[in-house]
Structure formats: structure tokens, C-alpha cells
Design goal:
Blueprint lengths: L14 H47 L4 E5 L5 E5 L5 E7 L2 E6 H54 L1
Antiparallel strand pairs: 1-2, 3-4
Helix pairs in contact: 1-2
């Protein structure tokens, strides 16, 4: 996504070329839509982590050491926390770092905010791509109608 933009005059293109441009734009739009969904999913996971840290902070203040430990998605066992002041934070690619609750909260809050900003930027790009697709479709429709109108006159 460099800052350079290539401008194409759609009126000068043949219908086959317009169809190819539309196909390319549709592929880009699909890729961007998938990326948007993945970013949104990542943001939701960080929000869940943030909620867990906040819950742990409240529980630490209540001096409760009892927790449920997930063994699978549906199986939990009762456990005891040995240290109420720290949590393990996944910083990516499977690396875990022990952080104080406040530092973990800030880490996850920064991640949620950063992904929110990326989502806004990507949403603007998606809207521009959708507008481009609509413009190409409109010109293609006009060219096809003009070609169909010209055929009876030739016969």
C-alpha cells in the first residue's frame, strides 16, 4: 500500500479490459475483507485477555487465590494461584512474559487500541475499493448497453 496511485480512464478501456479490472478489484476486495475479519478477531482476543486481567485484578484485591484452569475448551479444573500480583502475557509466537497486573493491562489496552486504529484505516481502504468496483461496474454496464444498441443498427 504505497502512497502512489495509478489512475485509469475507464471510458478508454474495452469491455474485456474492464471485466479484467473488475476481477482484479474483486480479488483485492476479498483479500482486504479477510484481513479485516482477521484483525477484528485478533482485537476481540486481546479484549478477552484484557477482561481476564481486569478480573484477576479485582480478584487479587479480594485476596482470592481460587481459579478455574482450562484443560480443554469445555473442561476446567479448580486451581490455586501462587502469586496474585503477576500474570503470564503472550507477546506473540508462543512467547510468554511474566508481567505485573498493571503492566499486563497496559500491554493489552495498547494492543486493542492499535488494532482499532488499523481497523479504521482498513475500513477506509475497503470503502474506496468498493467505490472503485461500483465505478467499473457502471462503466462496464454502459459499454455493454452501447454495444447492444449498436448491434441492431448494423443488421
Amino acid at each position: 500500500m504505497s502512497g502512489e496511485r495509478e489512475t485509469i480512464n475507464l471510458d478508454t478501456l474495452e469491455p474485456q479490459q474492464l471485466a479484467q479490472v473488475k476481477k482484479q478489484l474483486d480479488e483485492e476486495l476479498e483479500h482486504l475483507t479477510n484481513s479485516y475479519a482477521q484483525l477484528h478477531g485478533a482485537q476481540n482476543k486481546f479484549k478477552d485477555c484484557l477482561r481476564c486481567v481486569e478480573a484477576r485484578t479485582k480478584a487479587a484485591n479480594a485476596s482470592s487465590n481460587s481459579v478455574l484452569v482450562p484443560l480443554t475448551n469445555s473442561l476446567y479444573v479448580k486451581g490455586e494461584i501462587s502469586n496474585n500480583e503477576t500474570v503470564l502475557v503472550d507477546v506473540g509466537t508462543g512467547f510468554l512474559i511474566e508481567k505485573k497486573l498493571k503492566a499486563a493491562h497496559e500491554f493489552y489496552q495498547d494492543k486493542v487500541t492499535g488494532l482499532g486504529n488499523n481497523l479504521k484505516e482498513l475500513e477506509a481502504i475497503l470503502q474506496r475499493k468498493q467505490a472503485n468496483v461500483r465505478a467499473v461496474e457502471e462503466v462496464l454496464r454502459q459499454k455493454i448497453m452501447a454495444a447492444q444498441a449498436a448491434q441492431p443498427q448494423e443488421a
